[in-house]
Design a protein that fits this description.
430 residues; alpha+beta; 4-stranded antiparallel sheet; 3-stranded antiparallel sheet; 12 helices; 7 strands; 53% helix
């Protein structure tokens, strides 16, 4: 008999059909599950893109057709929020250092006022920063028309200036060499790293840097220590630390340089517009007596009609502390530096003539014109005021004539900025 061994059972036809059918069903199931997974991933990917990439590329405003993206807005907003937070923290430290000493009451009140202004500025930051970015785009477009540009080296120099670093100057040496060698290589010395991020966009708020006042006994005077110039190595270390702090706010070096570029473009355009302001103008020399109400002017008018001296009455009755001791003398001034009501009255008077009472936001004025010149050179203060006014007038006109669309929504403000705003609001209960 043949040997009986273990034989592999033969698969029947029916079993083969069943196996093939089950394998096909399994493949179909895997395909369905794979398709579902792909759809889920696509949905998640689209959602992520819309929330984190697509949304950031959406315009939050357009200026003459040029978009300002949500991403750029959030970058600027984070930077300004970080700067304001640093200023608020500095003011809080100053307030804590003043303590309850009665001699520091004035300083403490000053710090409290500044803190309140900063908090108000912080609360309105989301809207005001968008307005600033719109202005920056208007400035960029006007600068391009005028051929005004900012070079990378100018950005470098401005960053260095904001950190307090001054580049070594070239010192000529004796001899025929036409090349002026640089001064000695700076050596590393201890420096103070700035704690407040340099803000490229002027905010109009004064950040106090007043040192803590410590009362001392006796008349001994201690000279202030000389500040050690920052070395290049010190600047590099300070810049590195600063950029690291910006990185924590989702701001990179490229973003920071764009902010500095916008600042420099604004400054250059301001200078270009200022250069167009004439250095001479029609001016009057006037003095005034300022009181609170119209009723208070009646007895003063009577005394002037009786021939009493204008300067003496100004010293006695005027509430303008800046001019009363000078007999109310305002000096020479052109149009555009006084409030409109005062200016209109002053320029309508003949030399020596005294006005009727003139009401302005400061109170009620009695004005006398002492002199008038049709083309008098402007002093530096008046010229600067007119140059500032010229730029502001240009910007206001540009805002009125430009095609500006805003698409701002509260959801465009990063959550961390909203939290920062809430934190500073809690300081003053605003």
């Amino acid at each position: 008999m043949p040997k009986q061994g273990n034989r592999t059972p033969q698969e029947t036809r029916k079993q083969q059909v069943r196996r093939v059918r089950e394998a096909r069903q399994e493949r179909v199931l895997y395909l369905i599950l794979g398709g579902i997974a792909v759809v889920v991933l696509l949905i998640l990917g689209v959602g992520y893109y819309q929330e984190n990439i697509g949304k950031l590329n959406n315009p939050i405003a357009t200026v003459n057709g040029v978009p300002i993206t949500v991403g750029a807005y959030q970058t600027d907003l984070r930077y300004q929020a970080a700067s304001l937070t640093s200023q608020v923290n500095s003011l809080e430290q100053n307030l804590n250092q003043t303590g309850s000493d009665p001699s520091s009451a004035f300083l403490k009140n000053y710090f409290q006022q500044q803190l309140s202004q900063l908090v108000t500025q912080f609360i309105g930051l989301p809207q005001s920063e968008l307005s600033n970015m719109i202005d920056d785009e208007l400035i960029r477009q006007e600068a391009a028309k005028r051929g005004i540009t900012v070079t990378p080296d100018e950005i470098d120099q401005e960053i260095e200036r904001q950190f307090g670093y001054a580049r070594p100057t070239l010192t000529p040496t004796a001899g025929p060499s036409p090349t002026a060698p640089e001064t000695g290589t700076p050596t590393l010395t201890p420096t103070v790293t700035p704690t407040t991020p340099p803000s490229p966009t002027p905010t109009g708020t004064i950040t106090p840097t007043t040192p803590t006042v410590t009362p001392t006994q006796g008349p001994t005077y201690t000279p202030a220590p000389t500040v050690t110039p920052m070395t290049y190595q010190g600047f590099q270390a300070a810049e590195k630390n600063f950029l690291a702090s910006l990185s924590a706010q989702h701001i990179n070096e490229t973003d920071f340089r764009k902010l500095i570029e916008a600042l420099l473009l604004r400054q250059k355009l301001q200078q270009a517009i200022a250069a167009q302001v004439p250095t001479t103008a029609e001016q009057v020399h006037a003095r005034h007596i300022l009181v609170n109400t119209y009723t208070e002017t009646l007895p003063i008018e009577n005394m002037l009609k009786q021939g009493q001296d204008f300067a003496t009455l100004a010293q006695k009755y005027s509430i303008d502390t800046a001019t009363k001791d000078k007999g109310g003398d305002l000096g020479w001034f052109p149009r555009g530096v006084m409030v409109k009501e005062f200016e209109d009255a002053a320029f309508s008077l003949a030399v020596g003539q005294i006005s009727q009472p003139v009401t302005s936001t400061f109170g009620v004025h009695i004005i006398q014109v002492l002199g008038r010149e049709p083309n008098r050179p402007l002093d530096s203060s008046a010229l600067q005021q007119l140059q500032t006014a010229a730029f502001n007038n240009w910007l206001q006109q540009a805002e009125l004539t430009a095609k500006i669309n805003r698409f701002y929504a509260d959801a465009d403000v990063p959550p961390e900025v909203k939290q920062q705003i809430a934190n500073v609001q809690a300081l003053t209960g605003q």
